[in-house]
């Protein structure tokens, strides 16, 4: 702002909206003193004169009481000058009255503009501005009260809901900033947001933010499905077919039979109901796989698919059956693929384990599994045997952690599925059917020289290279197989469904459905999501395991030392499926068992702290 009137010593001026006085004039520069006593040399055009002075105090003292509102009412809707308005309101124009008027102009309620052209606001505009300011003041007061409640670790369910949504969005990874956390001078991170929501009670420990952070849906698909199409199927209902799965599983998609020396691996015939590029197929591609959370299972397919196709849910059940002929040494010599009807008996792993020695079918299947395990080991397969647990949230909110014992029944099912995957990979290769092969580069030779026990298994897992998908067959070194594909869980994994679509179309029409380009497009789309699915499942299991420890604050249990890293002992807790680090006065031996107790939980950071239990010998 500038004025055409020359500045002179003692004038009251504005510089960057601050009051000052001219102490010395010049042609190019003017010396001024500001309200804090500082002095500056500025250009004349950079200052605005409010009063010619002389002024000795900056800012000037307040003037005697004037008639500001009367002046405003008289001039409302018109324009005036600083000098005219001062004389009307105070009957004089002095540095004190000029400064008082200018403060009102700067405030903007009744007046606005420049010293030489002040706009006097109409009554309606003033009323509207007053209402706006009152609203802002109330909002500011409510905001400050909200922050005070948060600082006291509480919140108002009605008044604070809207404020907290930006914290929720940050905790769920839906945004990167939070006005609330910034106002509290806290880190704007998902973990800090999670901690704040827990501290004030808006969330409790049951809030699992990890599916939202991975942008994964947690609601069922609402896509209608047509009835199962009619088609010719081989009747295999005369064979006893066993579907062996975890207790509580409601979507069994594989079952086993023996017919002489013929091994039948029956798989839910999902491709018969879900063709490529159908709405359900596209939805499954977007989800990539079932999301297994301790609190729920989020299916990649509509619930009706499980009801119609899960083996044993209907009698008989539709299947795509893989018939394998094996050589005396366990090599696959022939595979036939047929749509079928099967009659399925469902067993849990524990039930199958109890019956295994006395049930002829289970015994034969186990013998086959043992032979295949030996064959794979002889081909360089790497066995990693570390404790596993299943984490589940019961209906009452209590977390249950069940260690999964090494059962022969699990070996039986795993080996049959590996045989089916190997056979299908060879079948696809022989018949030029594009499918996704699962491959893994061989590890360094030292992996085969590692010691036994949990420490050796822990190191072995670390040395293994990550498996990947390819459109060309290559060995899977970890499994000890020359070629392999996953194809036995089309209800649970999208790329298994794609393999079934390819195989079924070939079996019925004599040619594959998708070329390699179409196949790899699906592989890329599914793999991008499957990484998020695996990440979410790991984080969710860790989350609920820590909740379990919160529910059992006196927990004590065994820990096994599996590694040493710079004075820090890495300890595996078999009963929890966790790893932790301990700094101990004396370095323990690998595979040594320690008695531990939980000492602290940081749920937002997925961190549990342990120490040696009081009854520990160390």
Chain-wise SSE layout:
Layout: E1 12-15, E2 18-24, E3 30-34, E4 39-42, E5 48-51, H1 68-75, E6 79-80, H2 82-90, H3 95-107, E7 111-114, E8 117-120, H4 123-151, H5 161-171, H6 179-183, H7 190-200, H8 210-213, E9 234-235, E10 241-245, E11 254-259, E12 262-268, H9 279-287, E13 291-293, E14 296-298, H10 303-309, E15 317-326, E16 332-342, E17 344-348, H11 349-355, H12 360-378, E18 388-393, E19 399-404, H13 408-430, E20 437-439, H14 453-463, E21 468-470, H15 494-509, H16 516-551, E22 556-565, E23 568-573, E24 578-582, E25 593-602, E26 607-612
Parallel strand pairs: 9-16, 10-17
Antiparallel strand pairs: 1-2, 1-5, 2-3, 3-4, 6-8, 7-8, 11-12, 12-15, 13-14, 15-16, 18-19, 20-21, 22-23, 22-25, 23-24, 25-26
Helix pairs in contact: 1-2, 2-3, 5-7, 12-13
- β-strand percent reads 15-25%
Structural class: alpha+beta
Whole-number mean pLDDT: 93
How many domains make up the 3D coordinates? 3
Distance separating the two termini: 78 Å
Q: Give a count of the beta strands, DSSP E runs of length 2 or more.
A: 26
Order of strands across the main sheet: 4-3-2-1-5
Number of H/I helices: 16
Helix content: 25-40%
* C-alpha Rg (nearest Å): 38 Å
* Coarse shape: elongated
Low-confidence stretches: none
Characterize the biggest β-sheet.
5 strands, antiparallel
Characteristic terms for this protein:
alpha+beta; 618 residues; five-stranded antiparallel β-sheet; Arc Repressor Mutant, subunit A; 26 strands; 35% helix; OB fold (Dihydrolipoamide Acetyltransferase, E2P); 3 domains; five-stranded mixed β-sheet
């Amino acid at each position: 702002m500038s004025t055409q009137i020359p500045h002179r010593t003692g004038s009251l001026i504005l510089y960057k909206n601050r009051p000052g006085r001219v102490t010395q004039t010049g042609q190019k520069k003017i010396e001024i003193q500001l309200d804090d006593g500082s002095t500056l040399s500025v250009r004349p055009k950079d200052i605005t004169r409010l009063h010619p002075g002389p002024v000795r105090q900056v800012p000037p003292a307040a003037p005697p009481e004037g008639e500001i509102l009367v002046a405003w009412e008289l001039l409302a809707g018109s324009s005036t000058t600083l000098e005219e308005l001062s004389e009307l309101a105070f009957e004089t124009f002095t540095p004190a009255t000029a400064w008082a008027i200018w403060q009102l102009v700067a405030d903007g309620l009744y007046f606005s503009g420049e010293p030489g052209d002040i706009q006097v606001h109409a009554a309606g505009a003033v009323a509207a501005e007053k209402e706006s300011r009152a609203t802002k003041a109330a909002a500011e007061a409510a905001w400050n009260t909200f922050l005070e409640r948060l600082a006291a670790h509480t919140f108002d369910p009605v008044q604070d809901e809207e404020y907290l949504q930006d914290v929720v969005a940050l905790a769920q990874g839906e945004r990167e900033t939070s006005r609330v956390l910034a106002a509290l001078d806290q880190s704007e991170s998902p973990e800090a947001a999670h901690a704040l929501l827990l501290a004030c009670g808006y969330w409790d420990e049951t809030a699992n933010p990890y599916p939202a952070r991975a942008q994964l849906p947690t609601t069922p698909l609402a896509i209608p499905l047509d009835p199962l199409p009619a088609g010719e199927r081989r009747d295999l209902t005369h064979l006893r077919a066993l579907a062996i799965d975890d207790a509580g599983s409601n979507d069994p998609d594989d079952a086993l039979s023996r017919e002489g020396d013929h091994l039948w691996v029956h798989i839910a015939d999902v491709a018969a109901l879900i063709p490529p590029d159908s709405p359900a197929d596209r939805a499954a591609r977007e989800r990539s796989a079932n999301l297994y959370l301790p609190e729920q299972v989020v299916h990649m397919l509509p619930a009706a698919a499980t009801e119609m196709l899960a083996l044993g849910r209907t009698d008989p059940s539709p299947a795509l059956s893989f018939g394998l002929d094996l050589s005396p040494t366990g090599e696959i010599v022939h595979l036939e693929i047929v749509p079928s009807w099967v009659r399925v008996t469902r067993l849990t792993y524990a039930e199958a384990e109890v019956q295994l020695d006395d049930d002829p079918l289970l015994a034969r299947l186990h013998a086959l599994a043992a032979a295949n395990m030996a064959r794979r080991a002889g081909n360089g397969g790497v066995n990693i045997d570390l404790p596993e647990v299943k984490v589940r949230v019961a209906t009452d909110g209590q977390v249950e952690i069940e260690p999964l014992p090494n059962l022969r029944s699990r070996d039986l099912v795993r080996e049959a599925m590996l045989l089916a995957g190997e056979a299908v990979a060879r079948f696809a290769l022989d018949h030029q059917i594009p499918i996704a092969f699962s491959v893994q580069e061989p590890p360094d030779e030292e992996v085969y020289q590692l010691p036994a026990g949990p420490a050796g298994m822990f190191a072995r897992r670390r040395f293994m290279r990550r498996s990947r998908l390819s459109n060309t067959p290559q060995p899977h070194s970890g499994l000890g197989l020359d070629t392999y594909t996953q194809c036995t869980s089309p209800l649970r994994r999208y790329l298994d469904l794609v393999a079934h679509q390819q195989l079924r179309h070939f079996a019925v029409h004599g040619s594959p459905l998708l070329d390699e380009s179409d196949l790899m497009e699906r592989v890329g789309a599914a793999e991008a999501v499957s990484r998020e699915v695996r990440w979410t499942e790991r984080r969710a299991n860790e989350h609920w395991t820590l909740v379990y420890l919160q529910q059992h604050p006196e927990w004590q249990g065994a820990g096994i030392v599996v590694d040493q890293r710079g004075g820090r002992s890495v300890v595996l807790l078999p009963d929890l499926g966790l790893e932790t680090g301990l700094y101990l006065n004396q370095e323990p031996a690998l595979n040594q068992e320690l008695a531990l107790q939980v000492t602290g939980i940081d749920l937002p950071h997925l961190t549990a702290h342990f120490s040696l239990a009081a009854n520990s010998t160390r």
